[in-house]
Recover the amino acids of this structure.
């Protein structure tokens, strides 16, 4: 059996991102938080997963800076899990997953949710990969280059 | 312990997408295929995961229409895993994961790959969520509505 490489130290940002937030429940927890769910009991009701798994995933997401824990906004006893900027910036990933699912995983006649913008009530545009000059790029239009990171993260891990 | 809901029949396209391609290795296999890797031995060399796991993930990805298996282009004995259009359309998801990783998971001085377009040699633009009118949308600018799917998938599952 091959040795499993650690994705956490990979030079590939896709691998590190999958290792950090790519677990199925973690991304669905972030999806719910983007829909304004903040409390343990509401995540539990929405996702229906075991409480111990939900608890461990929330703990991990706090540790990696996706959530901050705050006292309840209404002064109650419950704490709230609030997305940080790092957490909120997962939004395009969730929308790209949503759009792929909408396109490929529903049969005609099946019901699914669509994402609309509040200002116009119209569906958000399809996410695509674009050059700095605005043209849509296919995989074969791109290549990768190794670079040394210059700018600090918005928050150190 | 709460009953685990089946994400495959969820009305949420994010949940279905995660259930279908969201497994860590599955998305990294698709990432490699987008970089033109086509053979079992090359996926194995790139990912370093156990052969039985690689084999089961490739089988699943063929079953859900992300890959088609072809005879080797050079007439050799090895088969090749070619991305379908459904598989190629995972590209924006992989790029969104990449960009989140680049922004949040590397310290200054660490090396990572960046994605550039071949025509200009410039980094691809940051993926964001936009309205039909071109404005960048934050999570709180959006809402969801249930809809009945009208158009058939490009290929039935």
């Amino acid at each position: 059996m091959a040795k499993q490489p650690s994705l956490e130290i990979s030079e590939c940002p896709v691998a590190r991102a999958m290792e950090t937030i790519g677990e199925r429940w973690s991304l669905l927890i972030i999806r719910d938080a983007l829909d304004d769910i903040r409390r343990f009991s509401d995540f539990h009701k929405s996702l229906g997963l075991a409480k111990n798994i939900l608890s461990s995933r929330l703990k991990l997401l706090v540790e990696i800076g996706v959530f901050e824990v705050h006292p309840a906004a209404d002064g109650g006893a419950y704490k709230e899990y609030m997305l940080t900027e790092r957490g909120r910036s997962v939004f395009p990933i969730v929308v790209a997953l949503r759009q792929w699912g909408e396109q490929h995983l529903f049969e005609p006649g099946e019901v699914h949710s669509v994402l609309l913008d509040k200002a116009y009530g119209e569906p958000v545009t399809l996410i695509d990969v674009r050059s700095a000059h605005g043209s849509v790029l296919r995989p074969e239009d791109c290549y990768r280059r190794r670079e040394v990171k210059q700018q600090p993260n918005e928050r150190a891990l």
